[in-house]
Amino acid sequence: MGGLGRGCPGTARALLLPLLLPLLLTTAIPPGRGLSPGPPEDVDECAQGLDDCHTNALCQNTLTSYKCSCKPGYQGEGRQCEDIDECENELNGGCVHDCLNIPGNYRCTCFDGFKLAHDGHNCLDVDECLENNGGCQHTCVNVMGSYECRCEEGFFLSDNQHTCIHRLEEGLSCMNQNHGCSHICKEAPRGSVACECRPGFELAKNQRDCVLTCNHGNGGCQHSCEDTAEGPECSCHPQYKMHADGRSCLEREDSAPEGTESNATLVVDGDKRVKRRLLMETCAVNNGGCDRTCKDTSTGVHCSCPVGFTLQLDGKTCKDIDECQSHNGGCDHFCKNTVGSFDCSCKKGFKLLTDEKSCQDVDECSLDRTCDHSCLNHPGTFTCACNKGYTLYGFTHCGDTDECSVNNGGCQQVCVNTVGSYECRCHSAYKLHWNKKDCVEVKGVLPTSVSPYVSLHCGKSGGGDRCFLRCHSGIHLSSGLQEAYSVACGSSSSLRSKQQKSNDSAFGDVATIRTSVTFKLNEGKCSLKKAELFPEGLRPALPEKHSSVKESFRYANLTCSSSKHVPGAPGRPSTTKEMFITVEFELETNQKEVTASCDLSCIVKRTEKRLRKAIRALRKAANREQFHLQLSGMDLEEAKKSPRTPEHRMQSCGVGQGRAGNQCVSCRAGTYDDGEQERCILCPNGTFQNEEGQITCEPCPRPENPGALKTPEAWNVSKCGGLCQPGEYSADGFAPCQLCALGTFQPEAGRTSCFPCGGGLPTKHLGATSFQDCETRVQCSPGHFYNTTTHRCIRCPAGTYQPEFGKDNCVSCPGNTTTDFDGSTNITQCKDRRCGGELGDFTGYIESPNYPGNYPANTECTWTINPPPKRRILIVVPEIFLPIEDDCGDYLVMRKTSSSNSVTTYETCQTYERPIAFTSRSKKLWIQFKSNEGNSARGFQVPYVTYDEDYQELIEDIVRDGRLYASENHQEILKDKKLIKALFDVLAHPQNYFKYTAQESREMFPRSFIRLLRSKVSRFLRPYK
């Protein structure tokens, strides 16, 4: 290079010519030649679009014409421009790993385990151990291009390469410390072992050791790696030199050659400066001084920068662009700048879309098993709610509320808890008051309301059966469950019979007959909607002479439930959702129907025969879709069919709902749905409604001499006029009322007595409304109750809790839950001890008790996964929460059998929020979870899938590759229940792959994940091509 000026004068002239040519042309024109008499009127062809410059060229207007020149990154004469492939040179665009050419520019990228240096070309090792210990259970060791997990003494690394398993001194070979395998030990026939290597390693000739290849961490080389018989051989990019360690690369410190003087000593100093400048400003010398890309042009060198960098004012240096400074990089939530690029991430409860910028709320309510009853999605989170009579525990579960555990349920005499409700009962010689709480003597019973009435009317119409089920009063709707509802009409005799057993001497003369029918609809979903059965609102009744069934009942309950998706047979798509509608009837017969020729038993048999006929007619009508439901004069559809044509009109609201703007909302307590105006109406005078989403209001109880009734919108019976208020009582619960005496209290309205404080305790004043108004000798803290006999605070027993001060009771835990210890202060301490999970042949999951709430103390769960023949098990642990503070007192272990000597696949006693996937080391798995009495945590929900053993090599290649867990995007896939379900669906039944279009696949998974899988699948299928 240094001899360029002295030995090649022709070259120097060639460099000078483009610069001198414009000067020569202008000075060569004799004076007066080629000049118009006046200044020419220039036309700006560039501004007016009259030029023919290429799309990738710049147009520069001149005095009489215009000039085209290709944009940086393109080459040509301006009217034709082609992209310069900066990667197509011996320096690979200056990139030490991969060079990616893009229109007008290029970008350097690094292999997995490396990150781009600040110069945008070099690649530096990523220390994976800095984040979450690399996901290693024990020790993480960083190496060039990768990392290794190592285990403490007495443990060995499991097949998933992250967790550690106790090593046995005796027992089966693969669990013994002397099995001899460098990486993975597999059982072989006759008790021997077979060794395997992790991805990127090859089994050595001794069939025990594993030899590193360039496929793992670039073979430990910073730049280039080449496999040889002796192992990976490292080399460096031409602009770098090898470090003494034989793996790292250092930038060369070659200084730019200085310009030498010409032999022509008589050249003026100015010519020397020009020549020196021109010699220096060529891409052939020191890259023209450019940080990145250099291009020789007619005006000298032109420097440019790759994508993600910007050229500085000196025209030479490139600086990384912090894209996050401008509009947050286009990221919806979080933006993290990286060298030459940036990464977007989302808040918890959101997922990053495939554009890798937008964040979308995760609709947890659309997933299976999110909430036991109803689920309400919120941006980034969700909440669960329970039906009336149930209490929420463990964040998502609902258990029956034991109302009797608090102040005897408010019952004056006997309280009996039932599932989803409770009832008060009275001793003999007493009958339940209208308020359903107090007991009054049988003589002088207050008038009761008219018994609810249900009718079933069936007959022939239009060549087939048609049935109408009509309910006029005593209606109760329950629609809290997703895609399910129930309608109760009337009062079940089971409640009345319990009452009558103790206070009705004629009970033996009454017989209750119960019957039910279930029929199936194949398409659609359960949805109770208003129906227009007949045109113009006409509702013709069935003519009496055509009626085949006409029955009256005391009680009816209609339930609609949708079955879950059922995986279809191999080669077939999954079946559509089926709906099951069940109608239960209760009918009473009594002594009044007995005749001389037919006693009560005979009457019962006749009635049962008549009901069987009614059920047959009802089933026929349902099969013809001619079963109609009518509540309080409102015609309803029991189910909504799947639409065959798109519906353009606005859908009507569901029953018990009114329209608020464009949304349907449940009618609040104190209102009802009138069925016509699609709005919620206030309960009229003399009625009340204490539940949401109902279509009637119940009549207020009335004294024998009715007084003034309260205004509309009574949302509780206490809002009905004339009732005694809390802290008051009277003989019938109506005014005139008396204040509760000292030493007594009453928290409810309409009561006939007050509760004593007990233990001779006084109250602070007359008209007390709670036990907290009683003057106790000590103030009890939460977790305790006041014993009125001993006048001491007693700890709440196990299975109960008390969150408030100064209470005389403890609340029973809901459903089947209990507490770990006594003295509990919160509902969160009530835990379900049952082991969770669903074990299927193809897919399933295991779940710690009470998940996602904290698991109970001193619990033990075991599960066994035994797949069908020729299938293997793949397990994904999205995250697991086990406290580390109690010296591994809580642990999860997966092995072949219950024997501690059997081959172990996985074991842990720590929290890992980083997901991991692995295959079972044995064909079946015995899984155990144990907790001690120490700390507790959320536990786990671990899904699994069984797959055809022919894919064993492919699956293991995927799950053992560190790139599966390298990025946050990949980790989020293994935590995304919808995506895991889709992956497992295809793994379990490969033919289901065709259910998903290519577009759907691209939209579900990030490009890097698809590239990883595609390379694995291609390599797996290559032998068969």
Please sum up the structure shown.
It is found in: Cell surface; Secreted. Helix content is 12%, strand content 32%.
Descriptive notes:
This is Signal peptide, CUB and EGF-like domain-containing protein 2. The chain is mainly beta and 1025 residues long. Helix 7 (952-959) packs antiparallel against helix 11 (1007-1021). Mean pLDDT is 79; it is low at 1-36, 255-276, 444-450, 495-507, 535-540, 564-576 and 705-711.
Properties at a glance:
single chain, mainly beta, elongated, disordered N terminus
Topology:
Layout (H helix, E strand, L loop, with lengths): L3 H4 L1 H20 L16 H4 L8 E5 L4 E5 L3 E3 L4 E3 L14 E5 L2 E5 L4 E3 L6 E3 L13 E5 L2 E5 L4 E3 L6 E3 L17 E4 L5 E4 L4 E3 L6 E3 L11 E5 L2 E5 L4 E3 L6 E3 L17 H12 L12 E5 L2 E5 L4 E3 L6 E3 L13 E5 L2 E5 L4 E3 L6 E3 L12 E5 L2 E5 L4 E4 L3 E4 L13 E5 L2 E5 L4 E3 L6 E3 L12 E8 L2 E8 L3 E4 L5 E7 L2 H11 L6 E12 L3 E6 L16 E7 L1 E8 L16 E12 L9 H24 L3 E5 L2 E7 L16 E4 L2 E4 L4 E3 L6 E3 L4 E2 L9 E2 L28 E2 L8 E2 L4 E2 L9 E2 L27 E4 L4 E4 L4 E2 L9 E2 L4 E2 L12 E2 L3 E4 L3 E5 L12 E6 L5 E7 L2 E2 L9 E5 L8 E5 L7 E4 L5 E6 L8 E10 L3 H8 ...
Parallel strand pairs: 38-46
Antiparallel strand pairs: 1-2, 3-4, 5-6, 7-8, 9-10, 11-12, 13-14, 15-16, 17-18, 19-20, 21-22, 23-24, 25-26, 27-28, 29-30, 31-32, 33-34, 35-36, 37-38, 37-43, 39-40, 40-44, 41-45, 42-47, 44-45, 46-47, 48-49, 50-51, 52-53, 54-55, 56-57, 58-59, 60-61, 62-63, 64-65, 65-73, 66-72, 67-71, 67-73, 68-73, ...
Helix pairs in contact: 7-11
